[in-house]
Design a protein that fits this description.
The complex is a heterodimer. Chain A is mainly alpha-helical. Helix content of chain A is 73%, strand content 0%. In chain B, helix 1 (2-27) runs antiparallel to helix 12, helix 5 (86-121) crosses helix 8 and helix 5 packs antiparallel against helix 10 (222-260). Classes of the chains: A mainly alpha, B mainly alpha.
């Protein structure tokens, strides 16, 4: 397994680059208090709307706050939202997928439910859930978790349907191994890789969707810096202080791109036949 | 034929679930929606009147039945704030969203299909790598951010395009299209990523087929082999993905319409959410999702027409 991994990484410099960029982003976000040259909340009206310079690398916003430091700190929350969404959609998706895949009786209902949830365009369903629950960090997490869970559920269900019929599962069943143990030890373990791939993509989509919701004013509190709220705040200064939107946007692109590169690479690794063709 | 009937039945079941989920979402709102909608200044009589009008004084299941009955009669309710029927509001806002969707699909196809074909034809070349990387990049750019960037450079600095709006009430069709150009580009680039990947994949499948080799063996020119023999057969999955992205674009339009100040369905739903105008939220969500389900069904049916090999 390790040999295959190493070989694949050698063959795919893009994956390695993606993983590298992702690592840098995560490290910068985690180490924000150490790296940031300024206090992200420090107001300095005298230096408001300053363009990028040696003192203010990414410029300043309408309150004179340092955009570079804010981008670093915002990364913490944006990444946290991504991870939270992955966690929530992971739990819902895996449970639904396993139920549908392993218990044919439940399948008819659960599969339709998955179809129905997939029938909602993602951002629209999130907007509606935010409308019902009121905008907050928790709502964003729950809403996006619900929105992306069906994707995972679909993958888990499809794989479970195949694994369920494999000889070793049959053997385990014949030996009288309890169902929950078959699921845990034999099915779930074999699902780890497709789940991982889906999770990287959901992570990327969640970062993009959070930014979208925040931009609409339906995300986290605008006072809390995330890449989305920073762009939302900067839009009123388009043409006047473009750096306010440009840099947080680039952070989103870098994060989403590196995640997708890693996800793509992992998928190739799992299914060499699919390889570069999809 | 039995396949078509089965698919129709399946679609109806999904639609039923969709309708139920929409109802649930709107009714899980914590607190009394009537109080939330009318705001803190409302009198008890006003709240009671709204509750009665919306059937909120009935138990949840009763409300659900009422909702289904009204829906069956094509009644999506009344907007709380605008005093118009939800269906009328939607009809009034449909045009910009419709044209935006079509326009951005066209742009996405113009970018993605030629690039996808070329990528597949020159598989694993530098151009192929570049195109697939670009596709990934396009899928990572938030469309509203791209929109702001386009406004800033092409509208504000160069003055080539209007900053926002839909050209005012009396504007002609061309003026409307002109106003839709930047929104359509910012949306189209995003969805071109998906179309490019699928075009490339399905062309790769087809280019390996025997009849392509035969065509080449007959001495047919490369251009004709690719465009006539390969592309024609690769078209089924491409059409599918174009249809699916088109349905997704309706949702993408939600944000893009806000960036460019277009008076479309997306704008309607966001302003309704901010006003907590639940009937409008409910109706819009319902109509857009049902259109999405219906489009997926029609794409499936299209298979039967454009690919004679598909028989169920």
């Amino acid at each position: 397994m390790r040999g295959v991994l190493a070989a694949t990484l050698r063959l795919r410099p893009l994956v390695l680059a993606g993983a590298g960029v992702l690592l840098v982003i995560v490290l910068l976000a985690v180490a924000a208090p150490l790296v940031a040259p300024h206090d992200p909340g420090a107001l300095a009206i005298s230096s408001r709307l300053k363009p990028p310079s040696a003192q203010w690398w990414f410029g300043t916003d309408e309150f004179g706050r340092d955009i570079f430091s804010r981008t670093l700190y915002a990364g913490r929350l944006s990444l946290l939202v991504g991870a939270g969404v992955v966690l929530i959609s992971g739990v819902i998706g895996i449970v639904l997928g396993l139920l549908a895949g392993f218990f044919p009786r439940l399948d008819t209902i659960v599969a339709r439910l998955i179809d129905a949830l997939m029938a909602f365009p993602d951002i629209l369903l999130a907007v509606a859930l935010v409308a019902a629950l009121g905008p907050s960090l928790l709502t964003v997490l729950v809403a996006l978790g619900v929105v992306y869970a069906p994707r995972l559920a679909r993958v888990v269900r499809a794989s479970t349907l195949i694994i369920r019929e494999l000889p070793y599962v049959e053997a385990a069943r014949a030996l009288g191994v309890p169902t929950w143990r078959i699921i845990g030890r034999h099915v779930l373990r074999n699902l780890a890789s497709p789940i991982l791939v889906q999770c990287t993509f959901i992570f990327a989509y969640a970062i993009l969707a959070e930014a979208g919701l925040s931009f609409l004013g339906l995300g986290v509190n605008p006072e809390i810096p995330t890449w989305g709220t920073m762009i939302a705040g900067g839009r009123y200064y388009t043409g006047q202080a473009d750096w306010m939107t440009v840099f947080p946007g680039m952070a989103i692109i870098l994060a989403a791109l590196s995640l997708q590169m890693v996800g793509d690479g992992l998928r190739d690794l799992l299914d060499p036949r699919l390889g570069r063709d999809l | 034929m039995s396949y078509v009937l089965r698919r129709i039945a399946g679609m109806l079941v999904v639609m039923f679930f969709v309708v139920s989920i929409v109802f649930l979402i709107v009714h899980i709102a914590p607190g009394d929606p009537a109080v939330v909608m009318l705001g803190p200044g409302a009198t008890a009589e006003q709240v009671a009147a709204l509750r009665a009008a919306w059937g909120l004084d009935q138990p949840l299941f009763g409300q659900y039945l009422l909702f289904l009955r009204q829906l069956a009669q094509g009644d999506l309710g009344q907007s709380i704030f605008l005093g118009q029927s939800v269906l009328g509001l939607l009809a009034g806002r449909a045009e910009p969203t419709f044209f935006l969707t079509i326009f951005s699909t066209v742009i996405a196809c113009l970018i993605a299909i030629p690039l996808g074909i070329y990528s597949a034809y020159r598989r694993n070349s530098v151009w192929d790598r570049l195109a697939t990387t670009l596709a990934m990049f396009a899928a990572s750019v938030p469309s509203f951010w791209l929109g702001l960037l386009l406004i800033q450079t092409l509208s504000l600095q160069l003055g080539w395009f209007p900053v926002s709006g839909y050209g005012g009430p009396g504007a002609g069709f061309l003026a409307r299209l002109y106003h839709l150009f930047l929104p359509a580009v910012s949306l189209g680039i995003y969805s071109s990523a998906l179309i490019l990947r699928f075009t490339r994949a399905s062309m790769l499948d087809v280019l390996g087929e025997d009849y392509v080799r035969t065509a080449r063996a007959k001495g047919m020119g490369e251009f004709r082999v690719v465009m006539k023999h390969a592309l024609k057969n690769a078209l089924v999955p491409i059409v599918t993905i174009v249809g699916m992205t088109m349905a997704l674009l309706v949702a993408g339009a939600v944000i893009t319409e806000m960036v460019f100040g277009l008076p479309g369905v997306g704008n309607l739903i966001v302003s309704s959410v901010l006003r907590r105008d639940y009937p409008v939220i409910q109706g819009t969500l319902l109509v857009v999702s049902l259109i999405y389900v219906l489009m997926n069904f029609l794409i499936d049916m299209l298979y039967l027409v454009i690919d004679p090999r598909v028989k169920y």
